[in-house]
């Protein structure tokens, strides 16, 4: 369930990234919608990092790196 939430948050972050690009092109950089999209993207990224940290802390996510 945690992995699905992380994937969903990453997809939402990518969607916010492209909506910000669309607003930047459409408004020619003079609108506040770009700032709103950036704010949403930063929030989604912070939640994603918190979910990943919680997953490692709780043991639901493990690293299988051999080095």
SSE layout and pairings?
Layout: H1 2-27, H2 33-58
Can you describe what's shown?
With 67 residues, the protein is mainly α. It has helices at residues 2-27, 33-58. The longest helix has 26 residues, at 2-27. 4% of the residues are buried.
Tags for this model:
0% strand; 67 residues; mainly alpha; elongated; 2 helices
**Ends distance:** 28 Å
Give the CA-based shape.
elongated
Oligomer: single chain
Percent helix range: over 70%
Q: Round the mean pLDDT to the nearest integer and report it.
A: 91
Helix and strand string, N-terminal first?
HH
Structural class: mainly alpha
Radius of gyration: 16 Å
**SS field, number of helical segments:** 2
Task: Summarize this structure briefly.
With 67 residues, the protein is mostly helical.
């Amino acid at each position: 369930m945690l992995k699905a939430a992380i994937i969903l948050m990453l997809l939402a972050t990518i969607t916010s990234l492209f909506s910000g690009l669309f607003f930047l092109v459409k408004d020619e950089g003079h609108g506040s919608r770009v700032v709103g999209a950036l704010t949403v993207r930063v929030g989604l990224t912070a939640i994603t990092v918190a979910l990943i940290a919680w997953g490692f802390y709780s043991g639901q996510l493990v690293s299988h790196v051999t080095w």
